[in-house]
């Protein structure tokens, strides 16, 4: 079972190697050094806009005093990145609003990012907390998605609501929410089709699912969780933008953080989209989906034991 710091290992090593080269024994912060820091941040997939924001902030802070050692610069970077990850949403207070019962989470994302696996791990996480969980297999276009979700539901010991292949996804979502309400469940997880098709089609499909669920629970869904693959870097950012244009995304789950040197994309997405990360995947095991903690993430990016002056 991994943790966030361990999962950040590949990103951290690449980032610090570049950072060490950028600053390498210099005692003053010149424009060249700032340019090198900018390159290091972009190479870690934080994105151009977010990188420029960080570098501008650093420039403002060092202008008064040109002397600055490696530790001071790292401390500043740590503070700036931590600030960018704080969306002010209170996402670290709790995972779900327990006054909403059942709490409905609609999960969206393209095929291949680990969406169905994430739902299975979430179901297991909630179940381990003693919550009653219902999963709705509304990705009716892929037999593999329904089969995979069925296996995960069995493993987690939660109920699954499904229909035959090609059924109306909204109908499955309706049945899942109705079943959860009848069983007095705490959480409902709704899988949706992972096709990044025409934006209008995507919008219509997700809107239809929302509308039918609201016939049972008027304020559903309470959360729209977008699953992204951290290892795809800027592609993940583009997917986030496309889904945000199609529906109201309220939270993010980043998978495969442990297999990526592009963990910096987390910072860029949160900064540009103003959507909090709630979960990160740091391994294949059922317990390797972690509740995101920005302090732990920043510590993982800036591990003092690996700092070389």
Q: Outline, from the CA principal axes?
A: elongated
**How does the major sheet shape up?**
8 strands, mixed
Which range best describes the helical content: under 10%, 10-25%, 25-40%, 40-55%, 55-70% or over 70%? Answer: 40-55%
Q: Kindly name the structural category.
A: alpha/beta
The rounded distance between the terminal residues' Cα atoms is: 32 Å
Structure description:
- The chain has 309 residues and is an alpha/beta fold.
- 49% of the residues lie in helices and 13% in strands.
- It contains twelve helices and eight strands.
- Helix 2 runs antiparallel to helix 3.
- The protein starts with a helix and ends in an 8-residue tail after the last helix.
Salient structural properties:
alpha/beta, 12 helices, 309 residues, 8-stranded mixed beta sheet
Give a short synopsis of this structure.
By secondary structure, this protein is α/β, with parallel strands linked by helices. Helix content is 49%, strand content 13%. The chain is elongated.
């Amino acid at each position: 079972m991994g943790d966030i710091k361990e999962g950040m290992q590949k990103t951290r090593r690449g980032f610090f190697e570049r950072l060490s080269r950028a600053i390498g024994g210099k005692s003053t912060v010149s424009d060249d050094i700032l340019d090198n820091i900018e390159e290091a941040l972009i190479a870690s997939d934080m994105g151009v806009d977010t990188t420029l924001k960080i570098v501008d902030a650093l420039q403002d802070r060092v202008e008064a005093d040109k002397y600055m050692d490696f530790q001071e610069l790292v401390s500043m970077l740590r503070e700036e990145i931590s600030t960018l990850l704080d969306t002010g949403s209170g996402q670290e207070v709790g995972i779900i609003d327990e006054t909403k019962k059942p709490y409905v989470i609609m999960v969206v994302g393209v095929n291949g990012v680990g969406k169905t696996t994430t739902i299975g791990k979430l179901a297991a996480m909630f179940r381990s907390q003693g919550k009653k969980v219902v999963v709705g297999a509304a990705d009716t276009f892929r037999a593999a998605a329904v089969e995979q979700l069925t296996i995960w539901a069995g493993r987690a010991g939660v109920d699954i609501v499904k229909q035959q292949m090609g059924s109306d996804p909204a109908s499955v979502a309706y049945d899942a929410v109705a079943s959860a309400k009848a069983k007095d469940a705490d959480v409902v997880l709704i899988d949706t089709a992972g096709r990044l098709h025409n934006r209008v089609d995507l919008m219509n499909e997700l809107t239809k699912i929302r509308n039918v669920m609201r016939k049972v629970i008027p304020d559903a869904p309470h959360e729209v969780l977008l699953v992204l693959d951290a290892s795809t870097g800027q592609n993940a950012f583009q997917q986030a933008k496309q889904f945000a244009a199609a529906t109201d995304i309220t939270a993010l789950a980043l998978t495969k953080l442990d297999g990526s040197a592009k963990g910096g994309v987390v910072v860029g997405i949160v900064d540009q989209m103003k959507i909090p990360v709630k979960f990160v995947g740091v391994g294949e095991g059922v317990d390797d989906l972690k509740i995101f903690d920005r302090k732990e993430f920043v510590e993982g990016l800036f591990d003092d034991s690996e700092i070389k002056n």
